[in-house]
C-alpha cells in the first residue's frame, strides 16, 4: 500500500513539474535481468503503437537497457525506497526517469563519469565515446563500465541527475534522460 | 559453431567451410564475456590458418558489454587478416534505423574493416 502511494506521488510530481504528458511504461520495485529484457520488449511494442520512428525506438531501447542493467547491478536494498523506471513523453519526445539506491563506491563512480562526459562539448562526445569503448576493460563478470557514457552519448547530453544522502553510506540516485 | 538465439543472446553461426561468421538478434547477456569467449576462441583458432572471413551482423539492440566483445571480434579479424580485401562486414539494419546504422559506422571506424550496409524489410 505504501509503495503504491509512493508511485502515485511520483507520477503526479512528474506530470505537474516535468510536464510529462503521457506515461508509456512504468516499472517499480526490485529488478532482475529477465525483467529488463521483458521491459525492453514492452517498450518497443508501446513505442511502435505510439508511432515513434524506428531509429528513435532503437535509441530508447539502447538507453533503457543500460539504465535497467545498471539498476540490476547496483541496486541496494532499502526498506522504503525501491527502484523505478518510467518512460514518458514530453513535447512528443521520449523521456526516461529512473532511480535506485546506491552505495558510496557507486556514488563516486556515477559522479565522476557523468560529470566528465557532461562537461564535454557536444562535438567531442562521439570521439570520447569511441575512446571509452576502445579503452574499456571487461571484468570477469562482463562489466565494461561504459554504460553511463553510452547513455550520455545516445541522449546527446540531454541528461539530469541527482544524488541525495540517505544514511549508512547509502544514497538515492535519480536520473532523467531525454531522448531526441 | 552454431548457437541458438535466446531472448538475451544472439544467434551465432560460424561456418568455417564458407569462412562466414553470422551474429543475429539481441545481444544483452548479463555476462557478455562468458557468451562471446567461446566464439573469440574458435575464431582465433580459425584465423591461425585462414586469412579470409566475411562477418554478417544483424543486431536488434545490444548492451555496452556486447559492444566491447563485438569490437574485440572485429579487432581480432582486423589484426589477423592484413589484406583488408579479404575481411569484410555486412551490417544489416532496417533502412530507417539511423541509430543502428550509426552504431555500424562506429564499429567500422574503430576496427578499420570494410563495412557494407544492407537494409532489411521492417518486421511489422
Could you walk me through the main structural features you see in this protein, from its secondary elements to its overall organization?
The complex is a heterodimer of chains A (180) and B (124). By secondary structure, chain A is of the alpha+beta class. Chain A has a domain of 124 residues: Heat Shock Protein 90 (2-Layer Sandwich). Helices cover 51% and strands 23% of the residues of chain A. Chain A contains six helices and five strands; from the N terminus they run H-E-H-H-E-E-H-H-H-E-E. In chain A, helix 2 runs antiparallel to helix 3 and helix 4 runs parallel beside helix 6. Chain A is globular, with a radius of gyration of 16 Å. Chain B has 124 residues and is α/β, with parallel strands linked by helices. Chain B has a single domain, classed as 2-Layer Sandwich (Transcription Regulator spoIIAA). Chain B has three helices and six strands. In chain B, strands 1-2-3-4-5-6 form a six-stranded mixed beta sheet, with helices on one face. The longest helix of chain B is centred in the first third of the chain and has 18 residues. Chain B starts with a strand and ends with a strand. The mean pLDDT of chain B is 94. The chains are: A alpha+beta (180), B alpha/beta (124). Chains A and B meet through helix 2, helix 3, helix 5 and helix 6 of A and helix 1, helix 2 and helix 3 of B.
Q: What general form of chain B does the structure show?
A: globular
Q: Which two chains form the greatest contact, residue counts included? A: A-B, 35 and 31 residues
Give the number of helices of chain B.
3
- Could you estimate the helical fraction of the residues of chain B in percent? 25-40%
- What does the average pLDDT of chain B come to? 94
Question: What is the chains' assembly state?
Answer: heterodimer
| CATH structural fold name of chain B | Transcription Regulator spoIIAA
* Main sheet characteristics of chain B: 6 strands, mixed
CATH architecture of the domain at 2-105 and 159-178 in chain A: 2-Layer Sandwich
Known CATH architecture of chain B: 2-Layer Sandwich
**CATH class category name of chain B:** Alpha Beta
Strand order of the largest sheet of chain B: 1-2-3-4-5-6
Determine the structural class of chain B based on helices, strands and strand pairing: alpha/beta
Parts with pLDDT < 50 across at least 5 consecutive residues of chain B: none
Give the strand tally of chain A.
Answer: 5
**Given this structure, which CATH class of the domain at 2-105 and 159-178 in chain A is correct?**
Alpha Beta
Contiguous helical run count of chain A:
6
Helicity level of chain A? 40-55%
The H-and-E topology of chain A, N to C, reads as: HEHHEEHHHEE
In round numbers, the mean pLDDT of chain A is 88
Amino acid at each position: 500500500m505504501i509503495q503504491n502511494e509512493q508511485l502515485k506521488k511520483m507520477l503526479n510530481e512528474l506530470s505537474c513539474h516535468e510536464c510529462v504528458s503521457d506515461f508509456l511504461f512504468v516499472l517499480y520495485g526490485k529488478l532482475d535481468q529477465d525483467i529488463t529484457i521483458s521491459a525492453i520488449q514492452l517498450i518497443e511494442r508501446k513505442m511502435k503503437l505510439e508511432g515513434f520512428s524506428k531509429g528513435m525506438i532503437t535509441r530508447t531501447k539502447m538507453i533503457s537497457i543500460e539504465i535497467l542493467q545498471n539498476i540490476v547491478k547496483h541496486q541496494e536494498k532499502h526498506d522504503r525506497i525501491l527502484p523505478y523506471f518510467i518512460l514518458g513523453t514530453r513535447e512528443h519526445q521520449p523521456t526516461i526517469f529512473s532511480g535506485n539506491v546506491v552505495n558510496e563506491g557507486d556514488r563516486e563512480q556515477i559522479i565522476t563519469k557523468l560529470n566528465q562526459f557532461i562537461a564535454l562539448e557536444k562535438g567531442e562526445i562521439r570521439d570520447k565515446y569511441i575512446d571509452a569503448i576502445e579503452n574499456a576493460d571487461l571484468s570477469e563478470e562482463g562489466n565494461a563500465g561504459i554504460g553511463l557514457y553510452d547513455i550520455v552519448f545516445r541522449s546527446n547530453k540531454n541528461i539530469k541527475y541527482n544524488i541525495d544522502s540517505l544514511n549508512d553510506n547509502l544514497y538515492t540516485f535519480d536520473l532523467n534522460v531525454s531522448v531526441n | 559453431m552454431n548457437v541458438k538465439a535466446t531472448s538475451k543472446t544472439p544467434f551465432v553461426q560460424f561456418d568455417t567451410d564458407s569462412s562466414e561468421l553470422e551474429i543475429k538478434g539481441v545481444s544483452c547477456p548479463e555476462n557478455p564475456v562468458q557468451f562471446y569467449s567461446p566464439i573469440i576462441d574458435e575464431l582465433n583458432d580459425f584465423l591461425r590458418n585462414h586469412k579470409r572471413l566475411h562477418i554478417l551482423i544483424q543486431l536488434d539492440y545490444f548492451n555496452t558489454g556486447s559492444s566491447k566483445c563485438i569490437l574485440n571480434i572485429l579487432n581480432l579479424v582486423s589484426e589477423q587478416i592484413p589484406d583488408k580485401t579479404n575481411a569484410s562486414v555486412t551490417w544489416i539494419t532496417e533502412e530507417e534505423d539511423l541509430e543502428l546504422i550509426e552504431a555500424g559506422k562506429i564499429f567500422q571506424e574503430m576496427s578499420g574493416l570494410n563495412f557494407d550496409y544492407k537494409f532489411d524489410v521492417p518486421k511489422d
